[in-house]
Task: inverse folding
């Protein structure tokens, strides 16, 4: 087999490196900045939504394997008041956060199709983003997510009322974005009860099989069973798939990263074919 000329080999190497370059950027969305980390690639981008109180760093263990197998652009970011992102406490709201995300992505040059990955409460952000980008969501993988079925107004109210004054102060100091979400938790639950991800969007639901009630907020074993049943119900809908990740807890990838990367890669490649 003939070897490549040295200059051609270097050109290919540099081109590959450029395509997989990581962009670390603060994007101005008006009254504050949002922090993005983007692993550049091809095809439509994969946008990651973290769980409540988490920033983009939570996805780091999964990104290289997903990028290697899909070649896609991977977009992670810190929501307002978390990680390296700023926050405007005079204008902050769930709906405004999603509007600002869309504005930031447009500034970064991502305006067409998106594939979504969400964990926990990130499913509400991903779902609202899909409502504001109708026809542009090619597919999604939801990892042990909150659903309107489980995160009802009653449950959200119970969570809010369980937080002590001392803990409110700590959350406001260390997780400012989370503080403002929890303050409006019941209202967000009510708003999103009719705005969850459309059934027409291909979706894989990955559920953990180990659930421990958080007694501090009054959770029971029955609540845990209900959460699992809600995920099963979501995963059984037309165009959806349900996957139970055995021996895993809420952050499924900590115990089984392979099942998470496998399902993301599999559905992404499938939707890539469908949309091309």
Result:
């Amino acid at each position: 087999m003939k070897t490549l000329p040295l200059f051609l080999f270097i050109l290919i190497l540099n081109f590959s490196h450029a395509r997989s370059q990581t962009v670390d950027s603060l994007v101005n969305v008006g009254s504050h900045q949002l922090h993005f980390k983007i692993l550049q690639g091809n095809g439509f981008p994969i946008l990651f939504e973290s769980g409540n109180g988490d920033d983009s760093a939570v996805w780091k263990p999964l990104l290289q394997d997903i990028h290697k197998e899909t070649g896609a652009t991977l977009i992670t970011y810190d929501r307002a008041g978390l990680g390296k992102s700023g926050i405007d406490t005079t204008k902050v709201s769930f709906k405004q956060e999603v509007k600002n995300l869309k504005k930031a992505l447009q500034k970064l040059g991502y305006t067409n199709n998106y594939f979504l990955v969400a964990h926990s409460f990130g499913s509400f952000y991903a779902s609202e983003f899909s409502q504001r980008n109708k026809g542009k969501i090619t597919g999604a993988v939801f990892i042990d997510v909150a659903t309107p079925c489980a995160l009802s107004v009653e449950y959200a109210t119970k969570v809010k009322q369980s937080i002590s004054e001392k803990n409110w102060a700590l959350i406001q100091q260390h997780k400012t974005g989370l503080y403002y979400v929890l303050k409006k938790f019941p209202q967000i639950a009510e708003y999103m009860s009719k705005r969850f991800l459309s059934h027409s969007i291909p979706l894989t639901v990955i559920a953990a099989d180990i659930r421990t009630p958080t007694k501090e907020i009054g959770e029971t074993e029955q609540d845990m069973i209900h959460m699992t049943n809600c995920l099963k119900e979501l995963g059984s809908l037309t165009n959806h798939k349900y996957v139970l990740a055995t021996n895993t807890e809420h952050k499924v990838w900590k115990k089984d990263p392979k099942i998470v990367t496998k399902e993301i890669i599999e559905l992404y490649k499938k939707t890539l074919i469908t949309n091309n």
